[in-house]
Amino acid sequence: MSEQIGVIGAGAWGTTLAILLAADANRRVNLWTHSPEGAERLARDRANERYLPGVAFPPNLAIVADDDRLAGPHALYVMAVPSAHLRATARALAPRLHPETPVLSVVKGIEEGTHRRMTQLIGEELPGRSLAALSGPNLAREIAAGKPAASVVASADAELAAELASVLSSDRFRVYTNADLVGVELAGALKNIVALAAGMVDGLGFGDSGKAAIITRGLAEMTRLGVAAGAHPLTFAGLAGVGDLIATCMSPLSRNRRAGELIASGVPWPEAGTRLTGVAEGVSTVTGALELAASHGVEMPIAAQVRAVVFEQHPPLAALAELMARAQQDELVRDRASRSG
User: Fold this and answer.
1) What is the mean pLDDT of the chain?
2) More exposed terminus of the chain, fewer Cβ within 10 Å: N or C?
3) Which residues lie closer than 8 Å to 47 by C-beta, 6 or more apart?
């Protein structure tokens, strides 16, 4: 790859990836933020103190707010803005981004209304580009601190996936490849909904047994929808599926788990959102996920209760009672007619 890489989005994960990519001194990494004031602060501090306190920027990492700084030949663009803003950002930057440069999405979501996956959305706004997605149990603060982790990059273009895995990998960050772009993206988006539910279990004080049940049955929901949408079922047993699900449901660093915990303790959404450092993507994803599920005839009872609690002020205890009162069934039954669970 050539020397210049553009990372679009200066949140925790975008900043972390920019730092990782800039570990190679031969690269110039442009970390783009939509706010000139934010860019000035990041450039002055040479760190992102809001999201990654104490992690210094390498000298070859440049902070940019001028869209023109993303123009010209680049080896790669990394899309790292929140899912709710991805379409508008891609549309606004489309005239500047080099048309032959591949785009790596690290955004986890399903668009409400269109129920598009993130690479589908990017493909609509930036047509003709080679696309890939990165997903896995990747907590930004841990990775920025140099703690070991693994991830998976997915693309319909096997050569691109292998090249990106090589570019992103280091002695502390191992990247696998997967041809199942649909599965990797859906797993990464859907696990945030389950993490909201897991956080609600924590907020209600119901213990690890209850949370383990939510995680396990949540994984079943994720897999059902993924397979119905054309994904490989084993993807959900991999890093983008169960790996990311465990990290997001269990870690105190998880914004989605924390959001669920706050809501269950009596803090309504969106007030709970103001108490987070960053975005709880499960909130933006749940409606689009349920729309996608309905289009495939897939029932997602946990996701449906999460949406009711977050957006309809349904009491978390009542949501739990409704899940517990569902009709009994064989755990492994596969009803292809209803795909229920």
Assistant:
1) 95
2) N
3) 53, 54, 55, 56, 57
